[in-house]
Amino acid sequence: MTALDPAAAPGLPEAASRRSPLAAGALSRWRAPASVAALALLPLVLPSQALAVNVLIYGLYATGYNLLYGYTGLLSFGHAAFFGTGAYATGIAIGAFGLHPLAAMALGIVLAGLLALAIGALSIRSRGIYFAMVTLALAQLVYYAALQASGWTGGENGLRGFTVARIGLGPVGLDILDPATKYAFVLACVAAALAAMSRILASPFGAVIEAIRENEARARACGFDVERTKLLAFVLSGLFCGLAGALSALHLSIVPLDSLAYPLSGTAVVMTLVGGAGTFFGPFLGALAVLVLEDSLSLWTSHWQLALGVVFILFVLFLPRGLGGAALALGRLAWRR
């Protein structure tokens, strides 16, 4: 990235250019606290605490994916590799090496980021469907590597035997088996991630990735190092997904092999599109909608994925900006009145 002022880039999103500086500042300052406040209410409105925790974890996973797809404009089909790497590394570090859960989570996040660096370096110069296929192929290599390394990963049976009952924080210990405490712990991790995401999007780097999404050639002509910026966005996206995987490992106390499978990569795409690609809170709305539909439809039919697919098609046809985009449009309309 060069020292050029990204705000002056003609490739900046049209919506951002229309936004007043006062409104933009207020939006970026309060979007993370407002999101955390909304997420704190989930246990009160959802039928189970476990479902609320899943919304947090998969919403964070989709948020990491949204940084790459919604804000940078790169469609990846391989993000399950980062989620699964974070989950497996956390579980192995706790079960095999006895690391403190927080240190194990940090290791899982770092390894997911390093994997994202390797996959991003190999795929970032391809474009469009070729980029999507390269990320899918490389993620499948990670899947089969985990399947073959059954001594470490448990193979197709998944990783087990690392239940975390308590997390010590100095003189204080958190009873993770208590549902309310677990939710508070996961929410605290998600809040830290959302604060970091908000800071990233409000920085010059955030403006540049949106400029790349809108017009990559123009961003390059303005002097930005497009390849390096896309690679950094890829790595940051992998770090957020790795954190989601680490939280999933602590939540479930197992890591199924499906954590690395391509359907989970598709889940990130669906949640992001249903919630609203390129919106801050949209991925959590998408995770909420998809998981609640899955929870409800699976009680009625074993073919719930077919019904979920129909819902997804209807969203693409009639609500292309997703739930988050529709909510923002309604908010702007109400503000003008």
Tell me what you see in this structure:
- The protein is 73% helix and 2% strand.
- By secondary structure, it is mainly α.
- It has a two-stranded antiparallel sheet.
- α4 (49-71) packs across α13 and α5 crosses α12 (226-252).
- The longest helix has 27 residues, at 226-252.
Helix content class: over 70%
What is the overall pLDDT average? 88
Strand order of the largest sheet: 1-2
Radius of gyration, in angstroms, nearest whole number: 20 Å
- Judging from the principal axes of the Cα atoms, what is the shape? globular
Order of helices and strands: HHHHHHHHEEHHHHHHHH
End-to-end CA span: 41 Å
Q: Main beta sheet, described?
A: 2 strands, antiparallel
Q: Approximately how much beta-strand content do the residues carry?
A: under 5%
Total helical segments:
16
In total, how many beta strands? 2
Secondary-structure class:
mainly alpha
Instruction: Report the uncertain regions.
Output: 1-18
Keywords:
disordered N terminus; 2 strands; single chain; 337 residues; two-stranded antiparallel ribbon; 16 helices; globular; mainly alpha
